[in-house]
Every structure is written in C-alpha cells, then in structure tokens.
Amino acid sequence: MGQYVFRLPDVGEGTAEAEIAQWHVAVGDTVQEDQLLVSVMTDKATVEIESPVAGTVLSVTGVPGEKLAVGSELVVLAVEGEGTVVATAPSEARRAATPLPEATPTVTKPEVAAPALAKAKRAPTPAEKPRTPSKLGFATRAAGERPPASPAVRRKAREVGIELQFVPGTGPAGRITPQDLDAYIASGGQVLGTSIAPAGLIEKHGVEEIKVIGLRRIIAERMQDSKRRIPHFCYIEEVDVTALEDLRSYLNATRLPEQPKLTLLPFLMRAIVKALSAYPQINARFHDDEGVVRRHEAVHIGIATQTPAGLIVPVVRHSEARDIWDCATEVARLANAAREGKAARDELSGSTITITSLGVLGGLASTPVINYPEVAIIGVNKIAERPMARDRQIVVRKMMNLSSSFDHRVVDGVDAAEFVQCIRERLEQPAAIFMD
Question: Of 401, 368, 410, which Cα lies nearest the Cα of 283?
C-alpha cells in the first residue's frame, strides 16, 4: 500500500486560491476514481473536484469556509501500489487518520477539586433538593378562602392570568411558593379557564452564531465592494404594462409546443437592447482601479437569480442578437442551471448590465445594488392593477415600477432618466420592441 497526495488543482482563470464549500467524503471513506471529493468556490463559481484515483481517505485538509492555495495538499489517500509518497507504517497511518480526542479540562489544585468532588458524590441534603409540589392538579380550598402567597407570587399570577385558588401549595401551612406556581403552569393548569401550553410565555436568551462562508460570503463581499466603490444614483419610473400583458397573454396562448412560456423578462431585455443603442455609455464596465470605462457593443445581460445557495447572476450573452423567444429560452436554461449548481464559470461572468426582480414580491419600489464593475442595474417591481387617469377618466390599468440604479461617476442623471424613459416607451407600446 502507498499514499497518494492529491493537491488542490488550478480551477481556471488564473485562480490562486479556492474556498472549501462542502466535503463529500470523510476520513476512512473508500472512494472510487472520478468520485466527487469536495466542492470549492472561487470568485466566479462553485467547482466540483473528483478523485483522480481509487483509495481510502487518510486525511483531508480544510473545513468549509477555509481558503486553500492552488497546489496545497487537499486529500491523502491510501492506494494500491506505491502512490506518490513513501508509505508510512500501519500504526503511523492509523494515528494520522484518527482525529485526536477533544481535550478535557484538568484541575491542577487538589485543594480546590476535593470539596467539589466530595459534594458530587454525597447525596443532596433536604435543603439542596429542588422543591416541587407534592402533587399536581387542583388545590382543595373552601370557596372564598384566600390562598396564602407572597406579593411577588400574587403579582406573577396576575400577569399570566392564574387563579391562585386552584394552585397547590407546598410551603408552610399550604403557602404557595414561586416553585409551586411555576410547576402549576408547566403542568398545564388553568389560565382564566384555558389550558396553559407547557412552553408558556418565557424569556429567551439564546444566540445562534452562523459563520459567513461560501457563496454567502462572496455575495456579502461583492455588495460591500459595490457600495463602497460606487456612488449609486437611483431612478424610479412607473410603466403602464396593460398592452404588454395583453400581448404576452396572446403569444403564450398561441405559442408552438417547442416554444417557452413568455414572462416579462424577454420583453424587458429587448427594450433594454433598443434603448442601449442610443445610450452606449450605460452598456459599460468601469474598471476604476485602472481608471478606464469600457463600453461594449455586445449586450450581455445578467439576470439576478435567487437559488438555494444565494443570489447568482447568470449571463445571457449577445442579447442584441436574440429575439423574444430565444431570450426566454436562454433565461430559463440559465436559471435552472444556476439553481441546480450546474452553471459553468463563463455563464456567471462578463455581464455588461443586469436585471433584478423579486417577482410577485417585488414591492412598489427598490434601490438595487449595482453588479460591480457594471454601471447600471434595472430593477423590476411587481405588476398591480391601479386606478389611473386617462383622457379625464379614471380607469384601471396594470402598472409596474422600474427601480434602477446607476454609477453617478459614469452616468449623468439626465442620461439615466432618458434611458429609463426610452425603456418605458417601448414597454407601453410593445410593437416598438419588434421594430428595427
């Protein structure tokens, strides 16, 4: 038997390190060649790493959230043959594979430990025993008899709605102690004629610590970086999508079996493409560390997608060359790949402008955070029927707000407003979306 040291491989795009996202094996597991070992995360995507050989796992390096440099030791396997390192003796291999037991606290002062140990071994005295009612249930007191209890017990009983008349007392002369009241509540006694839930109204003091790792850490860092670097300018405009919704319903009702169901997004994507032809400074990426704004002819639209792992932005490349149906097909494909964790690295990078939407939870307005280093993001809010004034008449229309943010270093306020108005006009007159 030999040992095979498997090191963290280069996962592409010049990545120097990767973060452990999830281990799929543990020490002692037997793995086959090409079996999934570990998922790691880069700034671009989650990468699944498979075993190059069959063997038994002797050790793993890193815990979820820990970053490892490319080339560092990742997994050591016991394999048939010589392996990549000189085999260790069986006893040494077992020691390497077996985690050390947790340390236990040691008392170094006998004079301190002895009394505590003695107390632990002897039986508790009557004074140390917890006081509980001799029995649970209703107390037997004469009608109108005032139960003996301290003012503090009476106050607590009033606060929780307890009738002390029915609480058994274990104190001197049947006095109701605080322990008696607590036991009565916990037993399911009567609160103003209603059974008490054992949980009761109690204070809670627990604190849960959650380490920010993996995709959640990357999202947090990117959002922080975006807000730190970019002076956001937000612009909100309402859009009458009544005609667009009628068109969308008609197209969905008459679509071919192989065509996808249309949502609002493909129409918005085409409207953005049309508007960007007049405002190319918005289809750009500002690399402020270089002092360079790069305007792109290609329109690569990022679609912010909520997944079980967090927010991911797959990219619909060359949206300028796609029609409504092609946009819908690609959005659906990428969204499914992102939610299943199967999106490729190049499908999650390179966007030039982003659309974000919370769907039916979109609210009235929002202030979306720009996907750095882009200079604009278009936010879609929910569609709702609202009374609107049309030709001096009040009519019900389907209305939606666009909440957009722009990098004020690159995009002037007037240009941002005109750009959004250009989108609005095409959504309100959807035939314009299809015209060259």
Answer: 410
